[in-house]
Structure to design on (746 residues):
């Protein structure tokens, strides 16, 4: 009989993982158990795991820990639990090796050794099975030597917190150079590009920076390790729009479903009018992506209407007006 | 809520709910008419428990509204992966998991009988042979144990491969897996590998991140496996007919197509019932059954790939005959001196179309496609620059011109303050 591969298995589940972490402790108190549950499992798990795990009168359903001295517990196991890399994990890793983006993170020698280790493991899927219908054709050059060198330098700087001296081409094709602390890499499947969120050091101050990796000419180390602690939530809140865009979406042409799906990646707040089926949606966005948002909204045509802010609505109105004039020519 | 459990046996019901909460973000209990209120409450509680940080509840006039709101470009981990970590199990399952791996942790190779005896001797746990045999088989299949035959007897030992061993031996693999667990296919598998080693993604963000896609990974794995083995499939859809029965379709699967613009993913296949290629949304597929091997698979795939080149998006149009495409032409204005970015946009987004510079500041995009209607949403992203639309059908052209008129009334008929 054909063997089915399971992604949805208790083997990978939060309860097993939580139990393993508890069992790895030499001795643990009840509050210690609750603390691991809250870190590893779900919000309500504290109601379920302890009653299965913690023995009462020396007995528990799972039988995995025993009381030590009335205050703490110890594992019944003789070894610390270890987490297997399963067949599914290995097949997935094998499939990833076909992706040049995955290989960007690994030196050639490491890739070769990993390939050797996974020799004989069947890839979970063949990459050609997946195709993106609308991915942009000017994606990053993942096999270009200089790109790979810059990519690895930047990834290494993110983990080591090293400030880099980066020279790059700006959006206006001007050469720019400065000191940057790379904070996060961002990949876009639609653009097929990486960008780097940075803290830019200018005039003795840190500010926000965003560089397209494909536009980096060189990234050199400065050996200066930054003590700057980036709070990513605060970092992104500085990039966020001041006021959300409010859009009215009508059910015409299945507009609500199409809109909700397409804008599922945005933080949003939705209200629906029961009588008309019209949804009022507030969308929050990164200010750098304002034009992208505008053209995506316009592509829905009259099925949606941008209501506010007035400045954003005016941007739409200008384009529509220009369009009307073009068609009247 | 007696009998409530955070864990679930099967994924499809929950999948349906999470998707609705996530996509619509404006549903109340009464909207889930087909489901009982007890089911709604249980599913809602589960989703709240898994996705606590991202759940928002509002008391709207129609009742309590539940929605999941995530700025998915700025998160380090797809919160919907948690749904995969909620599979239910029995007390015996978890006991055997930890005790058997503990017995074998020293590298010993033991038989079924020896393991059953050690469970009793070392831990005082009495299991019948059949229960332990099933677990050993399951774990040998999953790659947790290695099964080796000595004579006629099966011996089991623990696999040497651990998550930590991979990350320790291969420099950079942690970051590669962090990337692929958020931006790659079946990212949930990479996420579980990271979690096994106690690692968290702290370097990668994923723009245009449709986190809801992961809910389709389970059925997609069955599809991908059928494609790999060139098999027929039959799938059941979430939709129901008037008698309340779900629909079943059969065919030959070829590819998984995704649209980063619309956020939808499709299975493309040859549908025998309609005798044509079609694209089926993955989120509409409830379950998949693999069938026999298709003897003509390679020929059908070659023909499919030829046809795929005539799709602007994912639609094969309504035609059954092959090779019937319709031409469509958009004439676009872009200032050559100052608006390079528009010309670049046309070039990088043209897909199967071509872009021609026809006169000063004028560019023509043309394509021969099965379904010209698919081009029109993209075309409208150039509003303000479209000189003309030619080809396609009259219906498509009229719809475009009417849309512009309606938008003009919507945005430009306002009295100035």
């Amino acid at each position: 009989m054909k063997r089915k591969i399971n992604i949805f298995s208790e083997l990978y589940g939060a309860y097993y993982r939580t139990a393993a972490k508890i069992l790895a402790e030499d001795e643990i108190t009840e509050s210690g158990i609750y603390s691991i549950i809250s870190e590893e499992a779900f919000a309500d798990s504290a109601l379920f795991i302890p009653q299965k795990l913690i023995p009462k009168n020396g007995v528990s359903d799972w039988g995995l820990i025993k009381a030590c001295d009335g205050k703490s517990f110890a594992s019944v196991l003789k070894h610390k639990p270890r987490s297997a890399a399963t067949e599914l994990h290995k097949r997935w890793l094998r499939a990833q090796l076909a992706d040049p983006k995955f290989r960007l993170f690994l030196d050639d020698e490491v890739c070769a050794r990993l390939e050797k280790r996974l020799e004989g493991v069947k890839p979970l899927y063949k990459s050609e099975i997946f195709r993106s219908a609308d991915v942009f054709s000017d994606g990053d050059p993942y096999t270009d030597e200089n790109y790979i060198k810059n990519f690895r330098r930047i990834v290494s700087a993110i983990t080591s917190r090293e400030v880099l001296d980066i020279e790059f081409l700006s959006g206006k094709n001007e050469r720019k150079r400065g000191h940057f602390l790379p904070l996060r890499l961002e990949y876009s499947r639609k653009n097929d590009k990486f960008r780097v969120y940075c803290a830019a050091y200018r005039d003795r101050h840190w500010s926000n920076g965003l560089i397209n990796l494909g536009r980096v000419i060189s990234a050199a180390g400065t050996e200066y390790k930054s003590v700057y602690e980036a709070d990513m939530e605060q970092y992104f809140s500085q990039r966020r729009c001041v006021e959300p865009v409010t859009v009215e979406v009508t059910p015409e042409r299945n507009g609500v479903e199409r809109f909700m799906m397409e804008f599922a990646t945005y933080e949003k707040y939705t209200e629906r009018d029961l009588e008309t089926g019209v949804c009022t949606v507030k969308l929050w966005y990164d200010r750098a992506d304002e034009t992208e948002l505008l053209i995506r909204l316009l592509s829905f045509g009259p099925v949606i209407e941008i209501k506010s802010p007035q400045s954003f609505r005016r941007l739409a109105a200008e384009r529509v007006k220009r369009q009307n004039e073009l068609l009247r020519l | 809520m007696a009998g409530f459990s955070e864990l679930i046996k099967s994924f499809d019901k929950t999948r349906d709910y999470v998707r609705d909460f996530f996509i619509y973000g404006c549903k109340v209990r009464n909207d889930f008419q087909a489901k009982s209120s007890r089911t709604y409450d249980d599913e809602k509680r589960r989703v709240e428990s898994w996705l606590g940080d991202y759940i928002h509840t509002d008391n709207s006039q129609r009742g309590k509204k539940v929605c999941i709101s995530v700025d998915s470009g700025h998160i380090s981990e797809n919160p919907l992966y948690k749904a995969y970590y909620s599979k239910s199990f029995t007390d015996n399952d978890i006991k055997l998991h930890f005790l058997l791996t503990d017995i074998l942790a020293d590298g010993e190779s033991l038989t079924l009988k020896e393991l059953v005896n050690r469970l009793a001797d070392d831990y005082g746990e009495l299991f019948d042979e059949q229960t332990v045999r099933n677990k050993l088989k399951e774990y040998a299949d999953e790659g947790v144990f290695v099964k080796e035959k000595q004579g006629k007897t099966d011996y089991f030992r623990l696999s040497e491969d651990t998550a930590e061993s991979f990350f320790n031996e291969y420099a950079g693999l942690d970051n590669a897996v962090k990337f692929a667990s958020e931006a790659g296919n079946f990212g949930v598998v990479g996420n579980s590998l990271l979690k096994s080693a106690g690692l968290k993604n702290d370097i990668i963000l994923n723009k245009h991140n449709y986190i809801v896609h992961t809910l389709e990974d389970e059925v997609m794995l069955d599809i991908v496996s059928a494609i790999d083995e060139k098999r027929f499939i039959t799938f059941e859809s979430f939709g129901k007919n008037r008698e309340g029965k779900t629909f079943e379709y059969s065919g030959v699967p070829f590819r998984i197509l995704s649209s980063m613009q619309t956020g939808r993913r499709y299975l493309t296949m040859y549908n025998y019932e309609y005798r044509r290629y079609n694209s089926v949304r993955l989120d509409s597929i409830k379950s998949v059954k693999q069938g026999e091997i298709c003897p003509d698979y390679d020929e059908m795939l070659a023909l499919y790939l030829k046809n795929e080149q005539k799709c602007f998006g994912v639609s094969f149009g309504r035609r059954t005959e092959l090779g019937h495409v319709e031409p469509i032409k958009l004439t676009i204005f872009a200032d050559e001196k100052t608006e390079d970015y528009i010309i670049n946009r046309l070039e990088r987004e043209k897909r199967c179309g071509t872009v021609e510079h026809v006169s000063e500041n004028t560019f023509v995009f043309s394509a021969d496609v099965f379904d010209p209607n698919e081009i029109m949403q993209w075309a409208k992203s150039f509003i303000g620059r479209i000189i003309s639309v030619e080809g396609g059908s009259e219906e498509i052209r009229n719809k475009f011109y009417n849309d512009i008129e309606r938008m003009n009334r919507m945005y430009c008929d306002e009295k100035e303050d």
About this structure: Chain B has five domains: 12-72, 91-158, 163-209, 213-308, 326-412. Residues 29 and 142 of chain B are 39 Å apart (CA to CA). The first helix of chain B runs from residue 12 to 24.
